[in-house]
Amino acid sequence: MLTVSRSYSLVLSRSVPRSLNSSFLSSRVATSPKSNSCSRTSTFSTGKTKAPEAESFVTEASTWETVKSFPKRNPFLFQLGVATAKTSAADIMAQVVAEGKKWNEIDWKRNGIFIVFGAAYLGGFQYWIMVNKYRQWFPTMDAFGKLSLGEKLKHKAGLIDAGKMVLFDICVHMPWMYFPSYYTCKQFVFGDSWNPVDWVKTGCAQYYSNMKEDISAMVKLWGPSDCIQFALPMHIRMPFRHMVSFFWTSYVSYTRGSATEEQ
Fold first, then answer.
1. How far is the first Cα of the chain from the last one, in angstroms, to the nearest whole number?
2. Using an 8 Å Cβ cutoff, are 213 and 160 in contact?
3. Angle formed by the axes of helices 156-168 and 196-229, to 10°?
4. What is the pTM of this model?
């Protein structure tokens, strides 16, 4: 009798399709109490919403990433803002330190003129020279800036172009473009005449009398600074220059004295 029962079970198992057996087993598992509890637990866990603290953290992180990436996404606008703010701050320092003014005595009209100079020349013309024109004159500039320090030292063409950029800055740009514009702007701010020709003539005359000292100080500061600047990534170069220029502008203004001494 036992043999017949085993034979019948074997025949039955072979005759019933496997898909039916699988469906039967699945239904048994699904209807078991343990399976129901797992299903309820899974549904509860997947249906749970994010905590407000987590959403706030994600939002803050996203905002910080947007702010942090702004200089790289908008290099011109970023350095323009830095140049404008830097020049304004340097003029305020010159008025307070060099001229001994109190905060309520600051000439904000004069400060506005320096803001225009910082935005137009340092943020505009200087950017055009050192980014747009340098890209044409020194074709390895962008690729060289992206390399690591070790790769830069092995990049012969990039090193040569970087050296040319340094020489152009301290031999052409600073002595024949920056300083005449700087002294002309200073004469416009401090002088009595409203004739632009007088600003240029008087400013260039002052520059000529101070040229030896100015160029010597310029080479000592901007020579080493340029060696660093022209090895940096493109979106960092101009903000770095403006940072150095803040101390340079304050130094020049302080060493040249107050408005009464210049006149």
1. 128
2. no
3. 150
4. 0.66
